[in-house]
């Protein structure tokens, strides 16, 4: 068999479709993103929330977002420069700070302030109303 050189001619380049810009830059993985944002069909336009942690050179940003056709909608965000208010003074951009921010109730407090919770919990203890007389002897 002879070695045949692959020729990319004018017809090839006329039909060539470039990738998305953020795919070319290596910033988005659209295969994984599709599986993150796709919602079950029986939920009928209910937003599927996800947490995004973005690490920059000077900051760590934690966001809660959901996807729409127009683009991702950011519900709330927490930044590392807020952590000194919670007695975290050093190492604000390292892995431990990112983990603390991910586990931090700060982002969820901001989320609750954005969306007022409709269910406030039980108001009174109703355990005595549902207890029935159980006999010790088997039936």
Automatic annotation (TrEMBL):
- Gene3D superfamilies, per this entry? 3.30.420.100
- Cellular component terms, GO, for this chain's entry? cytosolic large ribosomal subunit
Q: What is this protein called?
A: Large ribosomal subunit protein uL18
MF-aspect GO terms:
5S rRNA binding; structural constituent of ribosome
Regions annotated as coiled coil:
none
**What domain of life does the UniProt record list for this protein's source?**
Eukaryota
Q: Does the keyword Ribonucleoprotein belong to this entry? A: yes
Tell me which Pfam families the record gives.
Ribosomal_L5e
The alphabetized list of GO BP terms reads:
ribosomal large subunit assembly; translation
Q: Which residues form the signal peptide?
A: none
Alphabetized UniProt keyword annotations = Ribonucleoprotein, Ribosomal protein
- What is the similarity comment for this entry? Belongs to the universal ribosomal protein uL18 family.
UniProt cross-references to InterPro entries, sorted A to Z: Rbsml_uL18_euk_arch, Ribosomal_L18
Q: Which SUPFAM superfamilies match?
A: Translational machinery components
